[in-house]
Every structure is written in C-alpha cells, then in structure tokens.
Specification:
141 residues; mainly alpha; Multidrug-efflux Transporter Regulator, Chain: A, Domain 2; 2 domains; three-stranded antiparallel sheet; 6 helices; 8% strand; DNA-binding; MerR_fam; MerR family transcriptional regulator; DNA-bd_dom_put_sf
C-alpha cells in the first residue's frame, strides 16, 4: 500500500479572476478535462456556466470544489459515492451557505491569495488617485 502523503502534489495558486476555462481548471487541479466533465455528472454541486458552443466556465469556488473532490478521491482514497457523501456532510454540518471546501485552501494558496489581494488593493488606490485627478480637471476645466 502506498504512503498517501507521497500522493500529494503541489497545485499551482489559483489566479484572481472570475472565470476559468476547462483547460485552465485542468492545469490548476491536475485533472484531465474529460474527468472534470465526468465529475460534473457525479457531483451536483459542480455546475460550471455554459456559454456559446457549450463551453464551460468555472468560477473560483468551483475550482476549490474540484480540488477538494480530487483530494478526497486521489489522496484520501474515497469512492465517488464516499466523496459525494463527505461533501454533503460538510455542507450540512457547516450550517452556512458558503461552500465548506473554501476552508480547505492550502497555506501556499492562502499566501498567493494574500499577494493578489495586496496587488488589487494597490491598483484600487491608483484608480482612486486617477479619479481624484479627473475630478480636479473637470472642476477647473
């Protein structure tokens, strides 16, 4: 029997963006696209937005959910039914509408997210300065 800790692979940080293609999610979660499509049928919580030509677009919470499903199946050895039950248990025990898998973000992902948030904060401050300058120009112009 293999050591489960050796089955863990480091997944890349999830970029701060709204939608991800199936190819991007495949890379972010180390799961092939056909597996993602299969999991969609097996896990009712997984509902990517479908646009033109049935192209799938996943949101951040769905990427986290896929990582959680991957962990349950590949690292903890759950069956599809077992993983489905575990996800349902988590949802019922949390009592909140928020997805329980959001709490499963790894330390390296949390660090990457804080870096992204810092960058976003700086960009927002720049936008505020630009808007203030435009107001001044409009006032005097």
């Amino acid at each position: 029997m293999s050591d489960k800790s050796s089955d863990r692979i480091a997944l890349p940080p999830i970029p701060a963006k709204r939608y991800f293609t199936i190819g991007e999610v495949s890379e972010l979660c180390a799961v092939k696209p056909h597996v993602l499509r299969y999991w969609e049928q097996e896990f009712t919580q997984l509902k990517p937005v479908k646009r033109r030509g049935n192209r799938r677009y996943y949101q951040h919470h769905e990427v986290l959910l896929i990582r959680r499903i991957r962990e349950l199946l590949y690292e903890q050895g759950f069956t599809i039914n077992g993983a489905r039950n575990r996800l349902d248990e988590g949802r019922h025990h949390s009592g909140a509408a928020a997805a329980p898998e959001a709490a499963e973000v790894g330390e390296e992902n949390a660090a990457a997210l804080s870096v992204d948030i810092g960058g976003l904060r700086n960009e927002l401050v720049e936008v505020q300065h630009l808007l203030a300058q435009l107001r001044e120009i409009a006032k005097h112009g």
